[in-house]
Specification:
By secondary structure, the chain is mainly α. Helices cover 46% and strands 7% of the residues. It is built from 4 helices and 2 strands, in the order ααββαα. Strands 1-2 form a two-stranded antiparallel sheet. A hairpin with a 2-residue loop joins strand 1 and strand 2. The longest helix has 15 residues. The two termini are 15 Å apart.
Length: 84
């Protein structure tokens, strides 16, 4: 999973934190990718959010390939949340 982990570090950690627990940026709370609302989302919903963004989160479809986004969605669900 080191490829997915490095994708996460390069693209997601700056806002969601190295451990994906979320953090505060300019007084706004960036959500955890481990706990909370994200746990209710399907892998497809996570994919959509990464690809298309949801303010204030930017879209990543122009920076990452479809396959990379798919790998990140799976990584968030399986590795960060421990879901199958």
């Amino acid at each position: 999973k080191s490829y997915e982990a490095s994708l996460y570090r390069q693209n997601c950690a700056i806002c969601h934190g190295q451990e994906a627990n979320g953090k505060e940026i300019d007084g706004k709370l960036v959500p955890s990718l481990r706990y909370g609302d994200i746990e209710k989302k399907s892998e497809a919903e996570i994919y959509e959010q990464i690809a298309h963004g949801k303010l204030p989160m930017p879209s990543f479809q122009n920076q990452l390939t479809e396959e990379e986004i798919r790998k990140l969605a799976r990584f968030i669900q399986k590795d960060l949340q421990g879901r199958e």
